[in-house]
Amino acid sequence: MSRNTQGNVAQGSALRKAEPCATRFLMAGGGTGGHVIPALAVARELRRRGHEVVFVGTDRGLESKLVPREGFPLERIEIGGLNRVGLQQKATTLLRLPFTTLGCAKLVRSCSAVFSMGGYVAGPPVMAALLTRVPVVVMEPNAVPGFTNRVIGRFVSRALISFSEAARFFPPGRTELTGLPVREEFFAIPPTPRGEVLNILITGGSQGSRTLNRAARESWPLFRNAVFPVRIVHQSGPADFEELRNAFGQSGLEGEVVPFIGDMPAAFADADLIVCRSGAGAVSELAAAGKPAILVPFPFAADDHQTRNAEAMERGGAARLVRDAELNGDKLFGAVSEAVRALDEMGTAARQFSRPGAAQRAADILEQVARDFH
Q: HSE of 134 in the Cβ direction (CA atoms, 13 Å)?
């Protein structure tokens, strides 16, 4: 197979010229932090080992900001989603897909392997890799794979998973339970017994969650009158911050409402119990830190993967699941009151889901499939 390729940039869907390189790896997957940040962790490890790494993404996704900032080249394509989108968007994507895939093929043939985090951005480069027989390694962080990984699952060389439930979507013998790359600071958090005051961390992510914000506010009178004293730190996001901060100041409770937490590992370390969504990144951080949780899945996540993640954590004894539509102040207070009787057991169970060294293991496997390819 020839490793010499040329590429032309045309209407934003073709890719720049890519010189052949025996140790070049292509990172596919973008749009959200959940797709980009783990791929960057693996890319940094590959670069540390002396390899060349290039990303594929769009101008709309978070990769357009994060990837260049890390010093990696970003080859831009034009592509949209196919799952849970309108008919017009789906038709546009299907019409564009063959041309974008053809453009990606010119770059893929210059690489030793493709690493995919899934998502619609990964579709064209992964399809191009399968067509040109370049090996594909996918990292699937959810209990149920996303649309792209379900479609191509049986053709991948290796699948790196975070939940054993995901193994059934890939060929037998090709999966490995590696977990998702998580910052080392989370793994460094030591187990600490709960003190007299129960420290609760509530976070709906950097933009906040209206559901969590509303339910937390409704729960404050209940916590004020509870038999166990609490201290609450609540990351509200910017939209509801001022209103929540003022109301919390009159609640009579210890703690604070903040719009954003810059040092999340430190916030985890201080918490006895965490109330949050159940995206792959969140549950991986909970596992690494060994923190019990009340998980409220975002109901509009693709393929309802957050619910599947929360169910897996609950089955393992690490969390309590409360559905978004059911969450109110009473429900939140009740879930915390139930969990507080089993915090140590839940924390120990959470650590059973932790997988340190995920980025290093992913790099090992990419090097291995690249050697086999050559």
A: 29
